[in-house]
């Protein structure tokens, strides 16, 4: 595997173009010929940097998950309570449909198909780490009495499933702003989970303390991607 992929580098430009093509066409519809033509490069240059299309997909998955984990570490440091941490997970999950939309679509539309593919071991480990953070916060919330008793594994599947297919219906330019969509997700999910459902409104508040931390977390993710603090990773 090559070194870290930085935005603005030759490898970074290739990975960005590949990500955009997978988001638009899917993995099967993406090929080195079109990728090279769009970048004004030879196919040999792409092979030199990445070797195979499978390796490009692997780096797409790994860089995507490293950004997500960097963001969660900010959440963990800033928000000690399980309800706040879980609300931040949801706010982040919805916001990815705007601030990192192209990579999110590329990742989500192919993640299940390639989850067990050879070469994806690091990506699986990163996804498992991310998933386990949610399981642990659900378990901790039940222990502290913040959450009603329930199956943490099932609740984790419900949480990820609720945001995984947003790319198929959410329009960033539509009538519903992303902050309102995120607030609705938090209110619905945590309203059913909290021992005191009245707490959900504060956790969902787009102007509240949780969202302020989410903004900090997204800045951390941009730093991992090699972006300026005021630059979003958006559609190509």
Automatic annotation (TrEMBL):
The keyword Transcription applies. It comes from the Bacteria. Keywords: DNA-binding, Transcription, Transcription regulation. PROSITE patterns: HTH_TETR_2. The keyword DNA-binding applies. Residues 31-50 bind DNA. This is TetR/AcrR family transcriptional regulator. The lineage of its organism: Bacteria, Bacillati, Actinomycetota, Actinomycetes, Geodermatophilales.
């Amino acid at each position: 595997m090559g070194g870290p992929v930085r935005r603005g580098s030759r490898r970074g430009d290739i990975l960005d173009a590949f990500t955009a093509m997978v988001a638009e066409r899917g993995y099967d519809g993406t090929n080195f010929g079109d990728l090279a033509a769009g970048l004004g490069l030879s196919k040999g240059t792409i092979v030199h940097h990445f070797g195979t299309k499978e390796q490009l997909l692997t780096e797409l998955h790994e860089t995507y998950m490293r950004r997500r984990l960097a963001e969660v570490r900010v959440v963990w440091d800033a928000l000690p309570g399980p309800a706040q941490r879980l609300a931040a997970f949801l706010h982040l999950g919805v916001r990815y449909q705007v601030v990192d939309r192209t990579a999110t679509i590329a990742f989500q539309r192919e993640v299940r198909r390639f989850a067990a593919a050879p070469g994806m071991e690091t990506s699986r480990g990163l996804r498992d780490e991310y998933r386990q953070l949610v399981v642990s916060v659900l378990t901790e919330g039940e222990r502290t009495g913040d959450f009603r008793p329930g199956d943490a594994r099932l609740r984790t599947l419900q949480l990820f499933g609720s945001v995984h297919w947003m790319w198929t219906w959410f329009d960033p330019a539509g009538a519903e702003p992303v902050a309102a969509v995120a607030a609705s997700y938090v209110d619905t999910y945590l309203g059913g989970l909290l021992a005191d459902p009245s707490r959900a409104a504060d956790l969902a508040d787009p102007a509240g303390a949780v969202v302020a931390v989410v903004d900090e977390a997204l800045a951390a993710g941009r730093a991992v991607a090699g972006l300026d603090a005021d630059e979003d990773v958006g559609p190509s």
